[in-house]
User: Which sequence fits this backbone?
């Protein structure tokens, strides 16, 4: 560190006579070059760009006896101030940072070094209006701004836009030696800092910068071209035109269990989701009145049978006819009572799963004749019902393949469209058509039956035809636009 500090000190050697001026100039140039190499190695020793930039501008300020040295990195037509000696937090000095950036942009646009105030010893001349504003803000500072190029090009017309800018501010005017040292710093130290900044850039930023340097385009122009190319690739990307709709699983066979007559719920032996067997009693209605009715008609039949036998023993034809008619009527009423009594026990029509009708909390609830109480579905075969919007139904045909993904399954289920409902249903303010499908993957039917359950809901994608992504988007957009124009055209 001592050698570095010694190398950054201004040259305090005694003045040489005129005949030794050439030798002194050579020694000064050699001393400056060695100092810049030390600064370059010191900047490379830092692990990140910010630390390297702060170290470099601080060393340059000491070398050239400057009040402040600033580094800006070019991004398109703008310059971003990345480091400035004496300013620890650039965010707290917005006015100074903005003036520095404008002066750097002035030099970057002209692609040459600028000095304010100008002198005969200036390396280059140009417009320095923004430099004058910066000097006025800094109480009359002398300013030298040097662009940093990828390759050293003497002709500014042939040079591309610089990658960075170094700006020097000091009280004393810039002489020829100081200006040459600033130029050397931009040549040897500037590219090192630019490389450190690029090393921390993302892959996207690196690609954009590389293309811009190769094609002589600005970064925003490269971004626009990349966006157009990406849009073109996406537009022609091959895909399959699909109709997306909500879907649910239903049993292939479903039976609704309804109340056979007015009555009250007495017992419930099953809940939705439970497996049931054929002839299992699911709901038992109150049957006390029906039992009394049955006993009444049994007693009535016994009396009428006795009267009929007495008429037969007396051979009374009129009484025989009357008693026989009443006896048949009583027997019919008894049969009706027995049927109603048997119907009071609601049984499962087949082996399956109870999918709706939880009456466990409705014991004693009155029911009306024909009221739906439960629904039983078979647990051996299923159908998938997709709820397709009316604007997509025209593209569907029987036999098309599709896939549906349910939340409880890890893989989508394949099915084939088997029926398209001819009429629509109004659901949540829109018209939908129910499209039924049967499973088409028969590799493991037992496993598939175990994974599916009536009532599952998911998202179905029905394959229509092979197409391109841009064409699919255009078809959907054109359909929406036609409907919109039709509505607003009156």
Assistant:
């Amino acid at each position: 560190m001592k050698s570095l500090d010694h190398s950054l000190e201004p040259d305090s050697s005694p003045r040489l006579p005129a005949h030794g001026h050439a030798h002194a100039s050579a020694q000064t140039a050699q001393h400056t070059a060695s100092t810049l190499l030390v600064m370059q190695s010191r900047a490379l020793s830092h692990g990140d760009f910010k630390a390297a930039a702060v170290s470099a501008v601080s060393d340059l300020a000491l070398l050239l006896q400057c009040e402040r040295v600033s580094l800006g990195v070019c991004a398109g037509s703008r310059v971003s101030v990345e480091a400035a000696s004496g300013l620890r937090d650039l965010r707290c000095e917005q006015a100074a940072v903005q003036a520095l950036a404008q002066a750097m942009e002035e030099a970057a646009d002209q692609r040459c070094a600028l000095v304010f105030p100008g002198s005969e010893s200036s390396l280059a001349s140009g417009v320095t209006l923004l430099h004058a504003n910066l000097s006025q803000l800094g109480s009359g500072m002398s300013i030298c701004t040097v662009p940093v190029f990828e390759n050293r090009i003497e002709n500014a017309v042939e040079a591309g836009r610089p990658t960075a800018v170094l700006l020097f501010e000091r009280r004393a005017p810039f002489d020829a030696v100081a200006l040459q040292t600033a130029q050397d710093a931009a040549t040897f130290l500037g590219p090192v800092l630019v490389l450190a900044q690029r090393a921390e850039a993302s892959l996207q930023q690196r690609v954009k910068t590389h293309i811009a340097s190769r094609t002589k385009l600005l970064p925003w122009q490269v971004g626009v071209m990349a966006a157009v190319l990406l849009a073109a690739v996406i537009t022609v990307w091959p895909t399959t035109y699909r109709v997306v709709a909500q879907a649910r699983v239903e049993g292939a066979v479903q039976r609704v269990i309804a109340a056979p007559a007015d009555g009250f719920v007495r017992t419930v032996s099953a809940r939705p989701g439970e497996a049931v067997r054929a002839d299992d009693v699911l709901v038992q209605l109150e049957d006390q009145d029906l039992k009394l009715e049955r006993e009444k008609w049994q007693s009535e039949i016994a009396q009428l049978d006795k009267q009929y036998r007495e008429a037969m023993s007396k051979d009374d034809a009129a009484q025989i006819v009357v008693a026989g008619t009443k006896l048949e009527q009583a027997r019919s009423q008894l049969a009706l009572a027995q049927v109603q009594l048997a119907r009071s026990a609601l049984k499962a029509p087949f082996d399956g799963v109870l999918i709706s009708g939880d009456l466990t909390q409705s014991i004693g609830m009155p029911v009306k004749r024909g009221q739906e109480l439960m629904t039983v579905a078979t647990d051996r075969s299923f159908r998938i019902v997709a709820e397709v919007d009316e604007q997509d139904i025209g593209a569907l045909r029987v036999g098309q393949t599709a896939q549906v993904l349910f939340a409880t399954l890890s893989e989508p289920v394949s099915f084939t469209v088997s029926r398209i409902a001819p009429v629509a249903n109004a659901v949540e303010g829109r018209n939908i058509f129910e499209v039924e499908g049967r499973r088409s993957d028969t590799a493991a039917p037992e496993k598939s039956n175990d994974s599916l359950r009536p009532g599952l809901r998911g998202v179905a994608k029905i394959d229509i035809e092979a197409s391109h992504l841009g064409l699919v988007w255009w078809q959907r957009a054109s359909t929406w636009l036609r409907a919109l124009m039709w509505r607003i055209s009156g």
Notes: Residues 288-314 form the longest helix (27 residues).
